[in-house]
Specification:
Blueprint: H1 5-24, H2 38-49, E1 53-56, E2 61-64, H3 69-76, H4 80-88, E3 95-101, E4 107-114, E5 136-137, E6 143-147, E7 152-156, E8 170-174, E9 189-194, E10 197-204, E11 209-213, E12 219-222, E13 225-227, E14 232-234, E15 240-245, E16 249-256, E17 264-270, E18 273-279, H5 286-305, E19 319-322, H6 326-344, E20 351-357, E21 363-369, H7 385-390, E22 398-399, H8 405-415, E23 422-425, E24 437-438, E25 441-442, E26 460-461, H9 463-469, H10 472-482, E27 486-487, E28 490-491, E29 506-508, E30 511-513, E31 521-525, E32 529-532, H11 539-548, H12 569-575, H13 581-586, H14 605-613, E33 620-621, H15 623-635, E34 645-650, E35 673-677, H16 702-715, H17 726-735, E36 741-749, E37 752-753, H18 755-761, E38 770-773, E39 776-780, E40 782-791, E41 797-806, H19 813-830
Parallel strand pairs: 8-9
Antiparallel strand pairs: 1-2, 3-4, 5-19, 6-7, 6-16, 9-10, 10-11, 11-14, 12-13, 12-15, 15-16, 17-18, 19-34, 20-21, 20-41, 22-33, 23-26, 23-29, 24-25, 27-28, 29-30, 31-32, 34-35, 36-40, 37-39, 38-39, 40-41
Length: 841
């Protein structure tokens, strides 16, 4: 059937009107308004589901196929055509695509969805300044409540993965009468009705509710101010909402919203037995935390009923607030999963990202891959690998490679500050055969990459450039010279030995050193190799421990004693009083093992000390510990600790009717009893928390610390091993407000391990990750420590710390590429005042 021109007018007018409305949309000034093109994302996802947008893995292109007339109009009058050109031009941001390389030059790929955040014109509402949710282990269901004298409305929390909500998540509420019963529901959101007509919606995103006004009647007022149609505002505890319709409606509500969200559980009694049910839709480790707390509670109760000498507190009525931030934990988890699915396809591997506030030590996110939603897509070799890969990998120790160099360099300079002026001849690497001696001592066969791209005009490498190019040879010099005998400001020369060959001679404060230093050698036989003694007692090793809180003496201990349980001390203090073996093991899935370099076992020059200084062997850290050490170094606060627990408190006692015991329904809820809490970000200490011991004098001079940071800053610049971060950093600074400057401090690492170790854990090595070193096949992993600093013209500075690990898929370039994708979303979300600007026009 053909259409007459007049029949085309009405649809055209509707389309034109919709397009004009979109172009004319202007949020009112303020930090909380946002326009997100949700309809565009839904339409693109629908086209993908229908097979009309497809990914060609051979050409690495996304193409539109089989579109009808309406869909072609959408292609030409939306973001879609530009997004296709952007993707096909090499920019992967518009879409989430899974790509896998197969044998024989074949490939497999799938277009998963549109990137929902690519076209956000401002940040999502739930990242607005001052709205920081904390994940919450809580014994009562937590909701946002609107209460008036006649009515109480509870809005259940919506998982971030379900946003934006569909129609089934809403329950209609009529505000038209005063005799309505209380509305209590597990729905995720409400459509507010006036005589059957929706005029507003209320969604619970994270903790506080978000109120969106969609009609002008009834009049909605927030804290006495009118709220216009189209506004999307967050509600916080203490806000007052008023709904007015002259002559018929005047409802007033007060808002109660929790300050914590995401990880929650409650205790129930079944046949006289107490049981806890956990909801873990946002945090994969929720069940592990809940089980550990339950075990500690039971141990504490047994201690309080039984032998008093165990000192158990015996409490079971407390809530645990975690320091984790609901938004950042979810956001980094999604971005990390998208990166791994897009880059590695269905190949199982392990990856982890820790995000930490350097100024407070609060751990804001522990993103881990595979996440629960990734499990079904992976091709497991054996079912036994599933639980190994499902753990949160931020708690697992792994080799860190060259990422340990800034920390070892800090210990070396703390021992002998003169080493800051060390300059060594560069090593060309490549096909050249390295000598079998280093500083005049027998080293045996070894392989060192070249570092001459960090050399000065005289062919020597100094402190800052050693970090920029990650010179292994310079690190070995620092370690050996810091353990040598010193006199008159320089290592004592071994006069009985031959002069050093030219490639080993070094400069110290401009003075040439031509003889090998005197080391604590106990054996120096050419056939057997060089052996050292008393390494664990060296000031170099002790300073490493003072600066970075490490344990370096190997101790034969049980599993419970080897855990870094200080992260959970506040919880244990409220339950058993101290960690017994049972409760310690219960916390093991969410607790890293202590860093233990086994320095008292370091004896062989080549096999032990070499690997220790270059981040192999026993030099194994968890992501959490790497982030903590980085925060200490960039902030100069050597007592700073990573904090997983924000607060331990006793909730208000409530009667059967829901009110606090002894209170009426209209009475204010009594405050919780805080057993322990961290200092607030503004520096105000909470009860029983934040009382730091008097700081010891720093073993590292502040000037030298800043020189190490200068080297780490060069790592993320052109010519550094993380140079791919230079472009997104430059973009941030170009867009930042006047007076605001962003800086990066980074260090990469490429540790290697045996292929069998990866296969044992379920990981499958990447095709380009395996290389042969000294005749042995090794698989490269990637590590990156990164501090993001925001400074202002008045000298104030704030810092975020990231530690990233990707196992067995290549070197540090993998983690650098992931960090490049995380950088801008993270900076915009953490410092939103720089990016949330009032709408104009």
């Amino acid at each position: 059937m053909s259409l007459r021109p007049a029949q085309l007018v009405a649809p055209a007018v509707v389309l034109l009107l919709a397009f004009v409305l979109i172009l004319a949309f202007g949020a009112e000034p303020g930090d909380y308004q946002v326009y997100v093109p949700e309809g565009y994302v839904h339409t693109v996802d629908a086209l993908i589901a229908q097979g009309k947008l497809v990914y060609d893995c051979q050409e690495r292109r996304v193409e539109a196929r089989g579109l009808n007339a309406a869909e072609r109009y959408f292609l030409d009058h939306s973001y879609l055509r530009r997004d296709l050109a952007t993707w096909n031009g090499g920019d992967p941001r518009p879409f989430v695509v899974e790509h896998q390389e197969l044998a024989g030059g074949r490939c497999r790929g799938e277009l998963l969805r549109a990137n929902a955040s690519h076209h956000n014109q401002r940040l999502p509402t739930y990242t607005a300044s001052g709205w920081r949710g904390r994940l919450f282990l809580h014994q009562d269901a937590s909701t946002t409540t609107l209460a008036s004298g006649e009515r109480t409305i509870e809005v259940a929390r919506a998982p971030l993965a379900l946003l934006p909500l569909d129609a089934a998540a809403y329950e209609d509420v009529w505000f038209g009468g005063r005799d309505d019963a209380d509305v209590r529901s597990q729905k995720l959101a409400f459509k507010m009705l006036e005589r059957g007509r929706s005029f507003a919606t209320l969604e619970n995103l994270g903790d506080p509710a978000v109120l969106e006004v969609i009609q002008e009647r009834p009049e909605v007022m927030l804290n006495g101010c009118p709220v216009g149609r189209g506004w999307r505002l967050r509600l916080e505890s203490g806000d007052a909402v008023r709904l007015r319709l002259p002559g018929r409606l005047d409802d007033r509500y007060s808002v109660e919203a929790g300050s914590a969200a995401g990880l929650l559980s409650f205790v129930s009694t079944v046949n006289g037995e107490r049981r806890r049910k956990t909801f873990s839709h946002r945090l994969a480790m929720a069940d592990d935390v809940a089980r550990a707390v339950d075990t500690a509670v039971l141990a504490g109760l047994a201690a309080s009923r039984g032998s008093a000498d165990r000192g158990g507190a015996g409490r079971d009525d407390f809530d645990v607030h975690l320091a984790l931030d609901a938004f950042f934990h979810d956001k980094l988890g999604r971005l990390t999963s998208d990166f791994c699915r897009r880059r590695y396809g269905r190949r199982p591997l392990r990856a982890a990202v820790t995000l930490l506030e350097a100024g407070t030590g609060r751990v804001l996110a522990l993103a881990s891959y595979p996440a629960p939603g990734d499990q079904g897509r992976l091709a497991y070799r054996r079912a036994a690998h599933r639980p190994l890969l499902a753990a949160n990998h931020n708690f697992q120790r792994h080799p860190v490679g060259s990422a340990t160099k800034p920390f070892l360099a800090a210990a070396a300079l703390a021992t002998h500050p003169e080493l800051a002026e060390l300059r060594i001849p560069c090593w060309s690497g490549g096909g050249a055969e390295p000598p079998e001696e280093l500083l005049g001592y027998e080293l045996g066969e070894y392989n060192l990459p070249g570092d001459c791209n960090g050399a000065d005009g005289e062919g020597r490498v100094g402190l800052e450039d050693f970090l920029r190019v990650s010179s292994n040879r310079y690190m070995l010099y620092l370690g050996l010279l810091s353990m040598a005998e010193w006199q008159n400001g320089a290592p004592r020369a071994d006069r009985e030995a031959a002069e050093l060959p030219p490639q080993d001679r070094y400069l110290l404060a401009g003075r040439p050193q031509t003889r090998r230093p005197v080391l604590p050698i106990v054996k120096d036989e050419e056939d057997e190799g060089t052996e050292l003694g008393d390494v664990a007692d060296q000031p170099f090793v002790r300073n490493f421990g003072r600066l970075f809180s490490g344990r370096f003496q190997y101790r034969s201990e049980g599993a419970a004693e080897s855990l870094e349980l200080d992260y959970w001390r506040p919880v244990l203090a409220a339950t058993v009083g101290a960690a017994d073996a049972e409760s310690a093991l219960a916390f093991s899935p969410v607790t890293p093992e202590r860093v233990n370099l086994a320095a008292n076992l370091v004896q062989r020059f080549r096999q032990d000390l070499y690997t220790l200084l270059l981040g192999g062997g026993n030099n194994r850290w968890s992501n959490l510990q790497l982030a903590e050490a980085t925060a200490r170094l960039v902030g100069g606060d050597w007592q700073r600790r990573a904090e997983l627990v924000e607060e331990v408190s006793v909730p208000p006692r409530r009667g059967a009717g829901g009110a606090a015991a002894g209170e009426t329904d209209s009475a204010a809820e009594p405050p919780a009893e805080v057993l322990w809490s961290l200092p607030q970000p503004d520096g105000k200490a909470g009860p029983d928390g934040g009382a730091k011991a008097a700081a010891e004098p720093s073993p590292l001079d502040e000037t030298l610390r800043r020189r190490i940071l200068a080297g780490m800053q060069a790592v993320a610049r052109p010519g550094g091993t993380a140079r791919e971060l230079a472009a997104p950093l430059a973009e941030l600074n170009e867009l930042a407000p006047p007076g605001v400057t962003y800086r990066l401090f980074a260090k990469t690492g490429t540790p290697t391990s045996e292929p069998s170790l990866l296969l044992r854990s379920g990981s499958v090595p990447g095709p380009g990750a395996t290389e042969v070193y000294s005749g042995r096949r090794q698989v490269k992993s990637g590590v990156l420590v990164l501090a993001v600093e925001r400074s202002t013209a008045d000298g104030a500075a704030e810092r975020l710390v990231l530690s990233l690990w990707i196992e067995g898929q290549g070197g540090s370039e993998e983690t650098v590429d992931l960090a490049a994708e995380l950088l801008r979303p993270l900076v915009e979300a953490y410092w939103p005042a720089d990016w949330l600007r009032p709408a104009t026009g």
